[in-house]
Amino acid sequence: MTNLASLEVKNLELWYGKFQALRNISFAIPRNQITAIIGPSGCGKSSLLRCFNRMNDLIPGAKVKGEVLFDGSNIYLANIDPSEIRYRIGMVFQKPNPFPKSIFDNVAFGPRVNGLGINLEDTVERALRRAALWDEVKDRLRKGALELSGGQQQRLCIARVLAVEPEVILMDEPCSALDPVATLRIEDLMRDLAKEYTIVIVTHNMQQAARVSDMAAFLMMEEDRAGILVEYSSTSEIFTNPRDKRTEDYITGRFG
Question: Which residue among 124, 177, 178, 225 is least packed, with the fewest CB closer than 10 Å?
């Protein structure tokens, strides 16, 4: 793996029981860039994303073959602790999911669990500033997180991930539950965070993928419904000069 790659997928295959969800996926995700995973519903985008931090381990019957290299090491080796991987490769989910706790306790949760609570106030402030939320909540840190707007809740969830100092941030449709104004705030935040973190985003929104990502991976289903990687390239090339006719058909709205 080159020094420019943060994650590298090699011959990755995923099964849920007897159903094969992903087949023979291979590509490298560059460091400090935003990579978008696009494709029609059901093609395995979220399943692929969950492979990057072993979230599929939590699903009964899930089985992974192949390799996911993170900084050169296969995260699926038997001696690798999945919980440690999930702190180094954090995830933001489709629907904002703050804990029913205060704003402060939401952000402090991860550092406390990991014994990183020496300077919790500083850690919480730094994470909220990075998530572009500090100025909006600094005077009500002890108020309930569920009182925040949807967009604020999603930025709080991003701050919660940032508080444990990950290297990679996975985002599964992070704006699908948000209005256009909140969506633009999250997109601006993603571009800013990419200066320090590697970001992988699953999105069904082609305009969003074109706006925010540097690289794009296009997945689609084969006849048996297994997801395959059709094309992976720079976002500009995927959207303006795709090499595969199936990519062009999807981008132009002929199917999907």
Answer: 225
